[in-house]
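Please check this.
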Amino acid sequence: MEINADFSQPIVVHSDRLDWQPSPMTGVDRRMLDRIGNEVARATTIVRYAPGSNFSAHTHGGGEEFIVLDGVFQDEHGDYPVGTYVRNPPTTSHTPRSDQGCTIFVKLWQFDMADRTQIRKDMEAGLGAPVDGVASARLHEDDREVVTFHRLDPGATLTSKVPGGIEMLVIDGGVVVQGENMERNGWLRLPDGATLSATAGAAGAKLWIKTGHLRHARAPQQ
């Protein structure tokens, strides 16, 4: 399966307009944003757990990175409330569930295979003082990518031009990018050499951004 698999092209997805698709586990549905592969896939997805649902125990062969968008995600290691950013590198494992239900934004098979750095952060807690209406937090940085979180005041503009591509998720509020309105759960991916300019609307915005990583995009090892 291939969805938005040409990384040389800009992509904008208004994910809340997509239908939910069932996963192999009852009560767990998803909206696929990009994908190369079938059930073992290099994938970027929004996943919804119904209250009381769970996913089978598994090992992260290619790593897992996620943000809790609403509700509380859980596994045997603890509870992860809204606003939690998690990196589970290759070789880690868990049994996900959600007693009350939750929605997460998740990326699979996009790690350096030698990465063993595990991260769990409250994104809001790391925000610095605003500069021109934009407060920022660095969530993760390595030789392959930089992952950040930003809170924009109404009308503030965030600009980024970083080699290796740019990816953005609107976590809350809304922004205008190249004349296009992007609301909550809107997602975009810009190729190497592109510039991102996102201006917050009247309610401001919260954005997750990753840069540099598209140089390393590849299909998962089967």
In short: The chain is about 0% helix and 55% strand. The two ends are 14 Å apart (CA to CA). Residues 73 and 79 are 6 Å apart (CA to CA).
